[in-house]
Amino acid sequence: MLSINSIKNGIVIDHIKAGTGFSIFKYLGLNNVNYPVALIINAKSKRYGQKDMIKIENSINLDYGVLGFIDPQITINVIENEKIKEKVNLRLPNNVEGIIECKNPRCITANERNPKHKFELIDEEQGKYKCQYCEQVYSWEK
Amino acid sequence: MLKRKNILDSQDLSIEEIEEIISLAQDIIKQPQEYADLCKGKLLATLFYEPSTRTRLSFEAAMLRLGGQVIGFSDSSSSSVKKGESLADTIQTVSCYADIIAMRHPNEGAPKYVANISKIPIINAGDGGHQHPTQTLADLLTIREARGSFEKLKIGVCGDLKFGRTVHSLIKTMSRYEGVEFVLISPKELKIPSYIKEQVLDKNEIKYMEVEKLEDVMEELDILYMTRVQKERFFNEADYVRLKDSYILDRNKLEKSKSNLAILHPLPRVNEISEDIDNDSRAWYFKQAKFGMYMRMALILKVLGVK
Ligand SMILES: [Zn+2]
Q1: Does A116 touch chain B (CB under 8 A)?
Q2: pTM of the prediction?
Q3: Looking at domain B10-130+292-304, which CATH architecture does it have?
Q4: A19, A58, A63, A62: which is closest to A38 by C-alpha?
Q5: Class in CATH terms, B133-289
């Protein structure tokens, strides 16, 4: 297996669904930084067969809510002095703001400039979200 | 409890709050003179971004009968909206003048959006196909006046159950009471949405059945809630011709019903209730409109914290 040096202080984003690592990499703006980062795609995974991974040699702040929304199966490992200091299992966030938009043409968010698109998780298993204004229900497909 | 609360969705009200509003409305019915100037010096703004004369008049009559006063507009073409003012700005401005706002808006969720902006309480007077809580409160008071209690009632809802927001809201609210059963009467194209069956009826273990024809279930019902079925909603002409009379309540069908049945309708009606039963003691739909005004009076008093 391809080996990438382990990191000293930073973050490993693990168990990314294979094929989506690159878009998360870009979403986090990691193609544009001055510290070491690695994107590993199609790594072997006991749990999922294949997975993508991102290793970041820097302590940056990640928005776990957004990452969980993009891919709730992700695990985040926070590394300090080459040791895992913290392991975070992501899940779908209860509230999502400003990431997805309500598609109901009668919704107030489609007709006024200012309201932020806000959604509330109503069914974690099925990934269902409800628009906070018109209550239209969306299944978030990954 | 209700003071300064925004009334956006009938589901936001607890059973206790509904009881509070109903018993106040019942007291107003008994002695209206005691309430005639409780809102003296208070101002209601009726902001109607789409016309609904019936609802607007009901709100305005409610406020005037409490001794308060009313400002507002009855459709957006005559207001500053036409000049491009945002809803948020209109609400900011109006909340400087008035004490309470009743707003009707074609966009779903508009009242919830402005509730975060407004400095004064907002009552949703209908937002698109979404919510119309004061209609539901009017329905509840009518059922209470007709039957004395909400429990153990067999409630028939007839007509367009797919798009009818008043029906959805009534089912959600009544499903919280003990022993209520529903008979859902509609053409198959206009059946109740599955989320209401799953998330409301099944979840609360409410008994219900779905039928196609009103005449088949008439004798079992305690309450019959009629709504309009539009021809355009049918998928084909043959079904329309076969079923159209099943959703029209006339003297003939009424004969089979219980003598204390109460017939409700959110109004306006087209032809789904024949006029020859308007004077029957089972017809409650005009009284329902009157109860709507009393419920709005009670709600205004509660939200303003006067009572
Ligand atoms: Zn929406």
Answers
A1: no
A2: 0.86
A3: 3-Layer(aba) Sandwich (3.40)
A4: A58
A5: alpha beta
The structure tokens listed for B13 are 């009200």
Residue ranges per structural domain of chain A: 10-89, 95-139
Q: Is A119 on the interface with B (CB under 8 A)?
A: no
Q: From CA A112, how far away is CA A117, in angstroms rounded?
A: 11
In this structure, are residues B294 and B271 in contact, taking their beta carbons and an 8 Å threshold? no
* pLDDT mean for each 10 residues of chain A (142 residues): 75 93 92 94 89 93 88 92 91 90 94 91 89 89 54
Does the annotation mark B233 as catalytic? no
Question: What residue in B sits closest to A137 (Cα-Cα)?
Answer: B195
Distance from CA of A100 to the nearest CA of B (A): 17
- Considering the candidates B5, B42, B104, B253, report the single residue annotated as catalytic: B104
Asked if omega into B268 is within 30° of 0 (cis), the reply is yes
* CA atoms in the 13 A half-sphere facing the CB of A44: 4
Chain A residue closest in CA terms to B112: A133
Q: What is the mean pLDDT of each run of 10 residues along chain B (307 residues)?
A: 92 95 98 98 96 95 98 78 81 96 96 96 94 96 96 95 91 94 93 91 96 95 93 77 86 95 93 95 97 98 95
Question: How much is the pLDDT for B38?
Answer: 98
Q: Which CATH class is domain A10-89?
A: alpha beta
ipTM above 0.90, yes or no: no
The domains of chain B are located at: 10-130+292-304, 133-289
A133 contacts in chain B (CB < 8 Å) = 108-110, 112-113
Q: What single letter denotes the amino acid at residue B100? A: I
Q: Which CATH class is domain A95-139?
A: mainly beta
